[in-house]
Amino acid sequence: MEPQTINPMANILLVEDDEDLAELVLMHLKFQGHKVTRVARCGDALKLYQQQVFDLLVLDRGLPDGDGLDICHQLRQQKNWTPVLMLTARDSEMDKVDGLEAGVDAYITKPFSVLEFQARVRNILRRVSQVSVSSVDVEFNNTAMNFGLLKITPELHQVSLDDKDVVLTATEFTLLKFLASRPGRVYSKDELLGHVWNTEHSGYHHTVCSTINRLRTKLKLPSDEHHFIQTVWGVGYKFQPYQ
C-alpha cells in the first residue's frame, strides 16, 4: 500500500524523548511519505533550526532539558512560522491555552490515536501549503493588503498594526488573510473550518472561536474601539475595515 500525502516529502522535525512513542510517530510519518529528523532535547532542536528549513515541528512538551514550549516561543520570536503540532500528557485547559499563546497550531494529548495524529499532520500541511477557496471564488496572491492602520503582507507572512509588528501563528495568519480577502463577507464556523482548517467536523467549532478571540486581542489598539474581526450573531464572523 503506497503512502498518501498532501505535501509529499515534507521535512518534519520530531522532538520527543520517549523512545517507544518516537519510534511509533516516526513510522507513521514516514509511511505518509515524509522525511523525518528526530531529536530528544530542546537544545538539539534549536541547533537544527539554524541549519535546516522544516515544514512541520512535532513537539513533545516535557523534555530532558526544558519545556517544549520554550522552543515554540523562541521560534516565534525569531519570526519563524513553522507550524507546530504539540504532543503532551498535560491536558488541562490552562496547558492548552499556554500552548496556543506560545504559537502552537495544534494540540494532541497523550495517549492519542494514530488516525487522529495522521489526520492532524495532513490538515496542518494542507493548510499551510494552500487555502482551498474555489467555492467562494476568492483569489489569494502575495499583494499586500492595507486597511488603514492594519497592513497584511502575505509574501513575507507579516502583519503590522500602527507600524508595529503583530506576531501571529500560521493558523491565525491564514484565518486573517482569508477573512480580509473578502471584507464584509460573513462566514459561518463550518465555512471557516472547511476553508482554513480543511475539516468538516463541527466538533472543532471551539477551535474557530478561540482563534478568532486571539486574533481580536492581537489586532486591537488600546486607544481604539474598532474590531477588525466582528461577530454576526447567529451567522458567523466577518472582517470589517475602518468605515
UniProtKB/TrEMBL annotation:
One annotated Gene Ontology cellular component of this protein: protein-DNA complex
Domain called Response regulatory: residue spans: 11-125
Swiss-Prot/TrEMBL keywords: DNA-binding, Phosphoprotein, Transcription, Transcription regulation, Two-component regulatory system
Domain OmpR/PhoB-type: 142-241
Stretches assigned to coiled coil: none
List of residues that carry 4-aspartylphosphate: D60
Domain of life from the UniProt record: Bacteria
Keyword DNA-binding: yes
An example Gene Ontology molecular-function term: phosphorelay response regulator activity
GO biological process: regulation of DNA-templated transcription
Annotated region of DNA binding: 142-241
CDD domains to which the protein is assigned, alphabetical: REC_OmpR, trans_reg_C
UniProt key word Transcription: yes
Described function: This protein is a positive regulator for the phosphate regulon. Transcription of this operon is positively regulated by PhoB and PhoR when phosphate is limited.
Name recorded for this polypeptide: Phosphate regulon transcriptional regulatory protein PhoB
